[in-house]
């Protein structure tokens, strides 16, 4: 069968959706190789990660659509013209991205990562809210199969969008990390002038990630560890820029490579993940896989993933965040227990399990 896959989001390295798209390509090529894939992306100047290009070999094809993503988003989400077959030729199935939904004669599959544009619209850029709602309007009318990253997102789809439950399939994204050596950890800490002990948090700097409350709770907690923050600047950071977390105990690194990210997880006393809402939450599982204890929000998918293997808090309550920080900061035995539980839990999120689960949906759709 010929299957077209929109992998445009793979260009956005360092984001959750970028990670997901890269894993999708690898999972399909490795665990569902009997189909012929046409992987396509739209860009004028953007490039895919080299790892992705290296995975795509005959009989599979890579097709670049020489249009800016904004143009394609308008054509597909707003006026809904220009069938995907214009670029791919005849296909049996198209897997759309989380940004557009193209016209097609083929069967359709998509992933809904989260419904933050409905749950917390004020924490997303207005353009993202508008684009997602336009896309989702076509998903509701035309999509044959919907993958979601968690039970939490499945429940949101049923409650908010009234999607029939039989259309929704929970497939947890895979997480793969490379365990750094002690020498690598020391080198990365030296590179960023970080002194132990420290706690770590990672994510794009934007309102949904809830860093404002974390910084206030951290200052109130008065724990011995530094707070290290890694992540690119997103939108809505004006307040943070006007009132930066002035403290010798808080260090903001900006974007870091995956290699450095893994070392920062591995060297930390624990990860704190205060996000208001997540469809999945890669940092939590990546930290677990590297033996880093996790302290995070009890809401959305994070509670689902962290419960039983980490310490949770109410992300809307600064006092509760402070309580959790103090609890884990001062208890070495607890951190060791959480580390062991997290390592075991992280093994549930394998690439093979992900790829085989998607393959199973193909078998159902393409009978």
Automatic annotation (TrEMBL):
Descriptive protein name: Glycosyl transferase family 1 domain-containing protein
SUPFAM superfamilies listed in its UniProt record: UDP-Glycosyltransferase/glycogen phosphorylase
Keyword Transferase (UniProt): yes
Domain Glycosyl transferase family: start-end pairs: 196-344
Boundaries of every Glycosyltransferase subfamily 4-like N-terminal domain copy: 16-177
UniProt superkingdom: Bacteria
Coiled coil regions in record: none
Gene Ontology BP term (one): lipopolysaccharide biosynthetic process
CDD domains cross-referenced by the UniProt entry: GT4_MtfB-like (cd03809)
Xref: InterPro entries: Glyco_trans_1, Glyco_trans_4-like_N
Keywords associated with the record: Transferase
């Amino acid at each position: 069968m010929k299957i077209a896959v929109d992998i445009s989001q793979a260009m956005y390295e360092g984001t959750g959706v970028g990670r997901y798209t890269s894993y999708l390509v690898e999972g399909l090529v490795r665990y569902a190789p009997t189909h012929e894939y046409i992987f396509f992306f739209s860009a004028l100047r953007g490039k895919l990660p080299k790892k992705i290009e290296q995975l795509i070999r005959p009989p599979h094809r890579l097709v670049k659509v020489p249009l800016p993503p904004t143009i394609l988003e308008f054509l597909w989400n707003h006026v809904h013209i220009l069938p995907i077959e214009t670029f791919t030729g005849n296909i049996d199935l198209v897997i759309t991205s989380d940004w557009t939904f193209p016209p097609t004669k083929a069967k359709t599959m998509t992933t809904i990562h989260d419904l933050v544009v409905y749950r917390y619209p004020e924490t997303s850029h207005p353009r993202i809210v508008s684009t997602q709602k336009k896309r989702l309007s076509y998903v509701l009318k035309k999509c044959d199969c919907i993958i979601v990253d968690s039970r939490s997102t499945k429940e949101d789809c049923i409650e908010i969008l009234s999607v029939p439950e039989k259309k929704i399939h929970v497939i947890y994204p895979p997480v793969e990390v490379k365990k750094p050596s002690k020498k690598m950890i020391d080198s990365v800490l030296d590179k960023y002038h970080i002194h132990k002990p420290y706690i770590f948090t990672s994510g794009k700097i934007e309102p949904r990630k809830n860093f404002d409350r974390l910084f206030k709770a951290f200052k109130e907690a008065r724990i011995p560890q530094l707070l290290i923050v890694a992540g690119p600047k997103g939108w809505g950071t004006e307040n943070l820029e006007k009132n930066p977390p002035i403290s010798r105990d808080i260090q903001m690194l900006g974007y870091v490579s995956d290699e450095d990210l893994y070392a920062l997880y591995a060297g930390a006393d624990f990860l704190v993940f205060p996000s208001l809402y997540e469809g999945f939450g890669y940092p939590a599982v990546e930290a677990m896989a590297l033996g880093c204890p996790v302290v995070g929000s009890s809401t959305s998918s994070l509670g689902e993933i962290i419960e039983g293997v980490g310490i949770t808090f109410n992300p809307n309550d600064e006092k509760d965040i402070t309580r959790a920080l103090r609890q884990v900061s001062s208890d070495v035995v607890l951190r060791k227990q959480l580390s062991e539980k997290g390592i075991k839990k992280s093994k549930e999120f394998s690439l093979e399990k992900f790829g085989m689960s998607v393959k199973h949906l193909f078998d159902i759709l393409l009978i």
